[in-house]
Design brief:
By secondary structure, the chain is α+β, with helices and mostly antiparallel strands. The protein has one domain: 2-Layer Sandwich (Phenylalanyl-tRNA Synthetase, Chain B, domain 1), CATH 3.30.56.110. It is built from three helices and two strands; from the N terminus they run βαβαα. The radius of gyration is 14 Å and the shape is globular.
Length: 131
């Protein structure tokens, strides 16, 4: 069986979002998309204090650890696969975090405009999770 190559918003093969964190729907460090992912966790975003405060105010606390779920809690500078709709919501509120285009799945384009993602683009992270 031939594996389907998942592509990023630039049309190239998808690269990992944050190698040191278990992000993504499958918790494999990549913003890959699967049928079961109703939230479309497609946008590889680099966390900012402003975005973490915004998403907390929206009812999604990404800063606090949840050891029972294996979630370490996120800090400024961490890469994380966000739901495309949450990134769009943050964008409309002027709180959108930077994105790594090469690690953002093309499915994000169902909700987010490439032009808007490009305005917030940063380089991919290295193996340690830094830019």
């Amino acid at each position: 069986m031939i594996a389907h190559i998942q592509r990023n918003v630039l049309g190239d093969p998808l690269i990992p979002c944050c190698p040191r964190l278990s992000t993504g729907f499958m918790r494999n460090g990549s913003c890959e998309i699967f049928r079961e992912d109703g939230g479309i966790h497609a946008v590889c975003a680099v966390m900012t204090k402003e975005f973490l405060e915004f998403t907390l105010a929206c009812g999604n606390d990404l800063s606090s650890p949840s050891p029972e779920l294996g979630f370490p809690g996120l800090s400024e500078g961490d890469g994380w696969c966000l739901c495309a709709s949450r990134w769009q919501e943050a964008f409309e509120a002027g709180k959108a975090p930077p994105v790594i285009l090469e690690a953002t799945h093309e499915a994000a384009l169902r909700i987010v405009r490439l032009k808007d993602l490009k305005q917030h683009a940063v380089p991919p992270m290295d193996e340690d999770g830094g830019e």
